[in-house]
Design a protein that fits this description.
Strand content: 25-35%
Structural class: mainly beta
Oligomer: single chain
Low-confidence stretches: none
Mean pLDDT: 85
Number of helices: 1
Order of helices and strands: HEEEEE
């Protein structure tokens, strides 16, 4: 016995993260020029235009500590509850964090 295919919107990952990943204005390329150093803090802001190495939506808005810097990627340590998670992401999904 088979079930009928649903005829509505999908309630998968894209449905749940649609509001988080929606961007209203275009982004330039100046984010690629910023140089991160080990020990800097970076804010995770997911950019839906770049799907490669996109972090999970639970990390959106979190601040991480830069652990290692590569040519295209940055490795961050992000505190999630009582645990520290290691996050490997591209420069598209982070921006410098300045606590004032």
């Amino acid at each position: 016995m088979t079930t009928k295919k649903p005829s509505g919107r999908s309630h998968g990952f894209r449905y749940k993260s649609r509001s988080v990943l929606t961007k209203k204005n275009s982004r330039g390329v100046s984010f690629l020029l910023h140089e991160y150093r080990v020990g800097d803090r970076a804010l995770i802001q997911i950019d839906s235009r770049q799907h490669k190495s996109m972090p999970h939506r639970r990390y959106h808005g979190k601040v991480g500590l830069v652990k290692e810097v590569g040519r295209r990627i940055v490795i961050l340590d992000v505190k999630l509850g009582e645990k520290t998670k290691t996050l490997i992401t591209r420069l598209d999904h982070i921006k410098p964090f300045d606590a004032k």
